[in-house]
């Protein structure tokens, strides 16, 4: 005999059929394959070697410096099969470890990759000269010599390696400077880097020289502090400086310790051999760290005064591609980030224009990351990796078609439903339009002249962005973003339609100052009527104005070019121009001053670019997945069609006796696969004009009954008829039912009215049939119906859900706990609504645990307990005759005297303001007659028994039902 446990297990487990065995086997094989694929170790197709290479640089090319390097060589590379190379440079504060993953990716593509720690960082020697042509750039040129001397590196001529240079930020500047200085470079991919270093750190948005620029003290201080310390954190863009890791050990690349190139170090090939000059002996300048003396002096001077000199600008310009763009002949792929307050899009714009003027192939790509936004979403990373691979394959490997000269960009589109990460949608257009866009959209802004104060010492200061966290500004509005008294606002009317901005907007302002000068910060906000104002990536336009009048009426307009952005301004949003006197990231005048500012006339000009969306790898994989699942879907659809056809054979006819009855439920049973019986035998009718209450304790089977009624689950046995049509999932007759079962499913980003309209459109019925006005009157939400659902309270959602159920005025209304979340006045109004609704041949079925409301609202009741009906009929019949009667009289004291004289009649103590009388068999009419004869007015006579008393008598006070599912 089987044990009780095994018997329970057999009931709990599904019965094993041939179909289930086959399905389980297929699923098991697929899951096993996915797990094996996910955990199978990757086999690297390259060798790695760490070593120190000593190069000679400096103005005369005779100063040795040790560089900590790592070399990746693809398997199979040899003198007989040489491979092209990539020199991969890191960002400021990084090391060779920072770019390790990128180097591995390039090595997998068949490139020999040389990474190294730039002088002044990590374990390399030397001092930081900021990509100076005589130092960092000459160092890189010597590394090209080292590559050219290797027999396994492809060359174009003796000493000329086939090589591309890739780097971001500090490494991107190196790529541009090296291409201008060394003609052996075949292609470059500079990312998130600068064009003019003095302009990047001393920007001025009306076109003035960096000598008059506004010092970007936040970023400059971070750079200087990073270079002054030994082993400090890196500057994002190339990644933070991770701890040095050991290399692959033995020389798996197969190269000799000394390849014979100039100044090759030889030796063990292990990292960490060189020391940091001056550290051991304590000779490191505490004020300058590892910076060269001239760079340190320039920084200290600018930081102390907040202004640059011609000499400091000239020093920084020596490390700027701007001065050598005409010498760059290597095809250039420029990648720049929109979330970048350090090197904004204008830097790539200037590089692109200057290089293209030589006839050199140039391609520009923008993405949603940058120094403030990191590498961006996976969709952006995939696009940029593809562009880089195509560029290097053609111009370095000599393979593949010539890359397009198209311009690509992206903007954040939302969250990925799978991993909840951000998703960026990429776009492409044939030609790079520049920061001016393909077209412009003017938007008028307005506001009176305003007076704003420059705080003493620049404190307190507004916070538009923080280095490394440009998007932080969206969290600061109203906290520390724009400080009261220190900024002026000018706003537009709500936009009539959305505007997709891609480029640098412009605006004209006027200013007056008692000192004749002013430093201002101009910002463009996107103002959501239902949310905070957003400053795109914390980008601001610093302005230094001179020769200003003291009276704003005499001020001349000045055009300000705002930072380039990529943003969609939605319809209904406003544009806000803010002119502020302070910003945490910039140096401002110390003296307190009050400026006057006004608009200069003319609109804000928004540049726009239109393009076609770029398919992402994620989207392509989704299509592949769809293809793999297609066969399963087709099979399931076939099964569903067979089942529905079987049901439809029964649905083609109408049962005559039920044709005019809204709802008939006959012998309904629902049993689950584990043997649990939620509904065992439910049988009731809802006729026209009735409001029927479905009652029962928790777990009695009410919700299961409603789910079967709405076609959400199949009954095990029994039939349901709606106006004579047998009900099955998908029945057309369901369109005659309005329902609120198991809560509403609204879209939080839409308003209440938009949700109702979206629901009605999904039904496919004409808009005129919806009766929105009646439904909205029922909801009683007023103007709140235009607010987004995410701002609604629970009660507001419930009222809107009831209105949704009533759209189209369905002939049968099914509501599950409709008063949940409503306050007493709303409950009373709902009572009246349901009574009015059950007219003109309509009917209502309502499930509720509020027995007093059911008693006052419903004409009929169905009481369910443990899956079975225990009572059904008119409410007054279920309540039944009461042994006690409540009398509402005009004179309770006189009435009590009369009743006390009647034989067998007894006044009970729980009157609650009236008289509760036990008539003890005396006819109520006789009692009333005695009271009237005594001159006592009788207003009301009602049985004392309530529906709650009858309910408890039917189901028992401790009944918990069957555990409804």
TrEMBL record:
Tagged with keyword Hydrolase: yes
Entries under InterPro entries matching the protein: AAA+_ATPase (IPR003593), AB_hydrolase_fold (IPR029058), ABC_transporter-like_ATP-bd (IPR003439), ABC_transporter-like_CS (IPR017871), Galactose-bd-like_sf (IPR008979), P-loop_NTPase (IPR027417), Xaa-Pro-like_dom (IPR000383), Xaa-Pro_dipept_C (IPR013736)
Record field: transmembrane: 21-40, 620-643
Comp. bias (Gly residues): 263-272
Organism: Micromonospora polyrhachis
Domain of life: Bacteria
Record keyword Membrane present: yes
Pfam families documented for this protein: ABC_tran (PF00005), Peptidase_S15 (PF02129), PepX_C (PF08530)
Composition bias type Low complexity, residue spans: 238-262
Location of the ABC transporter domain: 663-891
Family membership noted in the UniProt record: Belongs to the ABC transporter superfamily.
SUPFAM superfamilies in the cross-refs: alpha/beta-Hydrolases, Galactose-binding domain-like, P-loop containing nucleoside triphosphate hydrolases
Keywords linked to the UniProt accession: ATP-binding, Hydrolase, Membrane, Nucleotide-binding, Transmembrane, Transmembrane helix, Transport
MF-aspect GO terms: ATP binding; ATP hydrolysis activity; dipeptidyl-peptidase activity
Region (Disordered): 234-278
UniProt protein name: ABC-2 type transport system ATP-binding protein
